[in-house]
Predict the structure.
Amino acid sequence: MSQKFTTKNPSKPTVGVLCSGGGSNLQVLIDRARTGELGGEIRWVVSNNGDAFALERARNAGIEAIHASAKSLGSLEAVEAKMLELIDRDQIKVLVLAGYMKAIPVSVIHRLNGRVLNIHPALLPAFGGVGMYGHFVHEAVLASGAMWTGVTIHLVTEKYDEGPIVAQRVVAVYPGDTPESLGARVLAMEHDTLWREVRTILERP
Ligand code: GAR
């Protein structure tokens, strides 16, 4: 059965999104695109995880949802080829890593001329790097005794979690915080931050 996707508007810059999990940040992008505030159109959502709720959110919004993993496509090279094909097909202007827990192929970064944004749930360079994602980040922040954490949006380069920072917002750590309570406060800040930075990069000529 053929799937129906959102009406393509050639006058709007195009966005691709990569997700691995729940996709609450994706949902904000979908909602802000719908109101026109994002200033662009989300053409597809790719996930390395076929069960990711993010894919469901995309489908519910009429956006093409693709499971692309070495398992589903047969090899890492096939995942890379799929990403490049989608970027070229839709002339993607910005690729957003919204809770994507894998490194992306260098060829993808090059194809987009650096217009790849990642969101990280801490103040990079603190609490970043391989293995630092999701709840592990908040656990490490609490274990360190830090009084502040936050949100970082950065451009993706070949060095994991080390690309130029385009926005940071601070979130206080409270006495008695758990990884869950802190994570929820950081996530709320993420929701107010990511779409604005996507809009900013979409506005660039
Ligand atoms: C977000 O907190 C995001 O910052 C984090 O994963 C979560 C995804 O939530 N990303 C990383 O840790 C990347 N290193 P979401 O699926 O509900 O948007």
In short: Residues 19, 21-25, 54, 98-99, 119-121, 133-134, 137, 187, 190 surround glycinamide ribonucleotide (CB under 6 Å). The beta strands are 14-19, 41-47, 64-67, 92-97, 116-120, 148-155, 165-172.
